[in-house]
Amino acid sequence: MRKIIPFLPVTIILYGVFLSASLCFAQITSEGKEIGADYHKQGVQAQKNGDLDTAIMFFQKAVELNPGLAVAYNDLGVLYEAKGWNDKAKKAYGRAIELDPNLTSPYFNLGSIYEKEGDLEKSVHYFKKRVLIGEWNEEWTIKARKELASLGVDDPEIKANFLDQHLAGLDLGDDINASPKGNDLDPKKRKRDARMHYSRGKQLYYMGMLPQAMTELGQAAILDPKNKEIEKAFEEVHRKALMSN
Q: Which of 91, 127, 134, 145 is deepest in the core (most CB within 10 A)?
């Protein structure tokens, strides 16, 4: 019977080539992200200088080298829209959202572009999204709320949705207790729970729900009594509550 001799040298060589290529790719990817970020910065500067074509070139290079750079896709969308290339702009905004669903700008930009195109249903959809992921009194959230008002969407409706979503997000963790017991004596857990109460209290304050806000901030203060930020927020809400009576 003929003896079969495995081609070990060839196997070893091929494995070595594959390993080298993988290491090289990883290195290029890491370096590419840094270079892509630099290209993005250059694109922002070119855009500020009014050189849109150069800015587009830099942004395109940025996403080529760093495909996960969501902000560069959004900036590309802005320039595509400025050029009148709405379809390309919408794709760029959409890609930015896919990469970073918490990036606020592309939602507003999509709302605006669909409003200009007369697709009011999609416009309302994206303006609502913009409101729901932002801070209630942040500048661009307010602008999105005004756009929704102009499209016939009542602010109280948006306010209710906003509060529901933000409080639901804050409730994803463990149960929150103002009175420490058992594991609640863990300082890290108490501080984390205090932050959750603080965030909830701030959102309620923005919504004008002062008694509920004071309750949440009071619980935050119990859990983290040395936190000056919580103390300041509680005093601010308390003062506002006294003035409204």
A: 127
